[in-house]
Specification:
The chain is an alpha/beta fold. The protein has seven helices and ten strands. It has a single domain, classed as 3-Layer(aba) Sandwich (Dihydrofolate Reductase, subunit A). Helices cover about 25% and strands about 20% of the residues. Helix 1 packs across helix 2. The longest helix is centred in the first third of the chain and has 13 residues. The chain is globular and about 50 Å long. It starts with 7 loop residues before the first strand and ends with a strand. Pfam families: RibD_C (PF01872). InterPro entries: DHFR-like_dom_sf (IPR024072), RibDG_C (IPR002734), Riboflavin_Biosynth_HTPR (IPR050765). It comes from Gordonia oryzae. Keywords: NADP, Oxidoreductase.
Amino acid sequence: MLYQHKATQVTSGAPDETQNLRELARFYPYPDTLDRPFVRANMVASVDGASSVQGRSGGLGGPGDRAIFRLLRGLADVVVVGARTALTEGYRQPRRDEAFGAMRADRGQPPAPTLALISTSLSIDPDYPPLADPATVVLTCSDAPEQRRRALTDRGATVVDCGSEAVRIGRVLDHLAALGLPRVLCEGGPSLLGAVVAENLLDELCLTTSPTIVAGNTARIVTAAALPELAQMRPGHLLSDDDGYVYTRWTRAS
């Protein structure tokens, strides 16, 4: 049986942008009760499945996509991202967003989400600005190069092992839960999302489809070995904007 879903408009730069974001928030609820971390991923792809343009996902985005990006951060306890993606995309420490201040306070959340960087190699410049924030955490594995580990910790970075030969996402989530951060927003890149999917820990995928075709051999939003069984998802909603972008929310089928 086929169902027709009416698209809802996403706007950005509206006269009352705060009100617009709060109205959009009703489309992206976290579960009311969390007895374990809930993992939501936010990714962007072209119509033909490319996850970036010239190595950066930002080349696929638009104003509406940036509004969704801001919204999802405003709802999350922690932003989890691969260190390489964070460096390539120019990430900085998430900041307090007044549009969500009251909502976060009511839920007992900190003013801004924590930044968690995932890195097996610890190839991170010790002077990378977010490392100076005591809330930032680098999640790695015990086999990571000791010299790079010391370079980061000597500059005050918090480095935590979540695996031996590689970072295990399950252990990452255990650590975040111990910190009181159950609302997890994974912002990629494709290798990190692949690790989440491989461990069957993805609860929800928020996917922006850019109205573009990239072609070439650009990676998809998930980079991982083929799964032994398909990971089944079901559509939660479909939104659109005047620029032709489509925003879908997919939830775990079981």
